[in-house]
Design brief:
With 305 residues, the protein is α/β, with parallel strands linked by helices. The chain is built from eight helices and eleven strands. It starts with 13 loop residues before the first strand and ends in a 19-residue tail after the last strand. The structure holds zinc ion. The site of zinc ion has 8 residues, from loops.
Length: 305
């Protein structure tokens, strides 16, 4: 694959994986996604031009809109272990501020950083402390933070190692942690739905981090994965099934059906037990931190071990 360079392992060889259109229909064309031969990282390749990527966030891109109604919501919508703890938290790629609001409602002194001007305005008009800025460089809210959270954001970032390194530097010493939520390209849903998998989301998702890629990226950024699990929601199955039905010419509204959600929920539990759920939750600590596990506990596996 000409010019390919893996940000996780440095590999130069990649093989074709899937090709898919923008599921939101914002940008025309079909986008090719490849997998690194060495670590399995998925990448949109060749990389679309900057203006194509910027255009993909136009229109009514949901995460950049007004935040959801306040309230902490179910615990599954926050990183594991954030109930009843509190402290300073930073949400990277805060969008319209929903995740900042959730952490604040759960007792955290949470702030956000977000590159999109309209999203920042939406968050601020809801009274949420979100400042404009990039994940990789430039001004950032003052830390240090006990928690830095990337809620399905790292896959949008041009340089994920730089973003993780910066997150690690903003931590309050060895007790702080970085939590990355990111779609799992080896999940049961990705395998079942292929080009119709909802989390492909080209050209917004530049990367699809495999389990091995997450460990390698953390290492390159001075961090260590101490826990890795998957968390699935019925939405991933049902939204993918909707995309497939629409492509086959019979659009259906499946996500609102309580019956279908109930039907799919046991599949989500089984997938998470097998570590093959839709969404990774990777918890990382500075490499220098001691006593935080060795990354080889249940549900996690270090590459090459
Ligand atoms: Zn790689």
């Amino acid at each position: 694959m000409s010019g390919f360079s893996c940000p996780a392992c440095g590999g130069r060889e990649a093989r074709p994986w899937v090709s898919a259109p923008d599921p939101r229909g914002t940008v025309p064309g079909t986008f090719a996604i490849v997998r690194c031969e060495t670590c399995g990282l998925g990448a949109l390749w060749p990389r679309p031009a900057g203006e194509v990527i910027r255009a993909a966030y136009g229109g009514d891109y949901g995460p950049h809109g007004a935040p959801e109604a306040t309230g902490s919501g179910p615990a599954r919508r926050r990183p594991s272990g954030t109930a009843g703890t509190g402290g300073k938290a930073l949400v990277v790629g805060a969008g319209g501020g929903s995740e900042v609001a959730r952490l604040r409602a759960a007792g955290w002194d949470a702030v956000g950083i977000e590159p999109d001007e309209r999203a920042v305005a939406a968050a601020r008009s809801a009274g949420l402390p979100v400042t404009r800025g990039s994940a990789e460089e430039g001004p950032a809210p003052p830390g240090p933070f006990g928690l830095v959270w990337f809620p399905s954001v790292l896959e949008h970032v041009r340089d994920p190692v730089a973003a993780l390194r910066r997150a690690g530097e903003a931590l309050a010493g060895p007790s702080g942690r970085v939590v990355v939520w990111s779609q799992n390209p080896d999940s049961w849903t990705a395998r079942r739905y292929g080009a119709d998998w909802v989390h492909l989301d080209p050209p917004r998702h530049l990367w699809h981090f495999s389990r091995d890629a997450l460990f390698l990226l953390a290492g390159r950024a001075g961090l260590r994965v101490v826990r890795l699990r998957t968390r699935s929601r019925p939405r991933g199955w049902l939204a993918s099934a909707e995309i497939r039905a629409a492509r086959l010419g019979s659009p259906r509204d499946l996500r609102r059906s309580r019956f279908r959600k109930a039907l799919v929920r046991p599949l989500c539990w089984a997938a998470d037990l097998a570590g093959a759920g839709d969404l990774f939750e990777a918890e990382m600590v500075p490499t220098s931190a001691r006593g935080a596990g060795n990354g080889s506990g249940p549900g996690s596996r270090a590459p090459g071990l």
